[in-house]
């Protein structure tokens, strides 16, 4: 993924109260590390976690009407602002769109989604015929990946 490509970290799901706060669905581990979103259009003033997501206040949002108008807005930062990765780490956004191939270099399809249902990441691969299958993002299922492709082990490629 290019360094300047936007990466969505959260989405506004609605207004909270009357003072311009918004409820967020957060897709990142720590949103508080960022203060500017959407190319500087939104400046984070405060953020507090709740069991249902997070409550945020942005400098540019003065009241409930402005907060309601943000419903559905994705909050993104440039890829270059994300913390560097360690060995064998990846950002979900970097996997989306990668070609998926078998260990014998057979084209399997394209990664269209990364999910986590609690036991670890699972990638969804769409075959050329439009059908999809899922593969756990573990070394025995995905022995290697890089910026161009994901290699899927034979036992998982026939799913």
Description:
The protein is mainly beta and 159 residues long. The chain has 3 helices and 12 strands, in the order βββββαβαββββββα. It has helices spanning 64-69, 92-95, 154-157, and strands spanning 6-16, 21-26, 36-37, 42-50, 53-58, 74-78, 99-102, 107-116, 121-126, 132-136, 144-145, 149-152. Strand 4 (42-50) and strand 5 form a beta hairpin. The protein starts with 5 loop residues before the first strand and ends with a helix. The relative contact order is 0.16. The mean pLDDT is 90.
Give a topology summary:
Blueprint: E1 6-16, E2 21-26, E3 36-37, E4 42-50, E5 53-58, H1 64-69, E6 74-78, H2 92-95, E7 99-102, E8 107-116, E9 121-126, E10 132-136, E11 144-145, E12 149-152, H3 154-157
Parallel strand pairs: 7-12
Antiparallel strand pairs: 1-2, 1-6, 2-5, 3-4, 4-5, 7-8, 8-9, 9-10, 11-12
Pick out its properties.
159 residues, mainly beta, 3 helices
List the quaternary state of the chains. single chain
Structural class: mainly beta
Total number of helical segments? Answer: 3
* Helix content class: under 10%
Mean pLDDT: 90
Number of strands: 12
Low-confidence stretches: none
Task: Estimate what percentage of residues fall within beta strands.
Answer: 35-45%
- Which of globular, elongated, flat, extended, rod-shaped describes the shape? elongated
Radius of gyration: 19 Å
End-to-end separation in angstroms reads 27 Å
- Largest sheet, order of strands side by side? 3-4-5-2-1-6
- State the order of secondary-structure elements, H for helix, E for strand: EEEEEHEHEEEEEEH
* Major pleated sheet: 6 strands, antiparallel
């Amino acid at each position: 993924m290019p360094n300047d490509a936007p990466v969505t970290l959260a989405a506004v799901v609605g207004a909270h109260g009357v003072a311009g706060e918004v409820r967020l669905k957060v897709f990142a581990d720590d949103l508080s590390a960022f203060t500017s979103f959407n190319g500087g259009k939104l400046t984070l003033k405060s953020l507090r976690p709740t069991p249902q997501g997070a409550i945020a206040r942005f400098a540019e949002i003065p009241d409930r009407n402005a907060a309601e108008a943000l419903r559905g807005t994705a909050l993104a930062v440039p890829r270059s602002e994300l913390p560097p990765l360690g060995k064998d780490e990846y950002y979900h956004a970097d996997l989306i769109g990668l070609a998926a191939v078998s260990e014998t270099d057979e084209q399997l399809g394209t990664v269209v989604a990364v999910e986590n249902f609690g036991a670890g990441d699972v990638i969804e691969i769409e075959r050329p015929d439009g059908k999809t299958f899922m593969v756990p993002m573990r070394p025995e299922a995905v022995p290697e990946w890089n910026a161009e492709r994901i290699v899927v082990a034979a036992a998982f490629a026939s799913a």
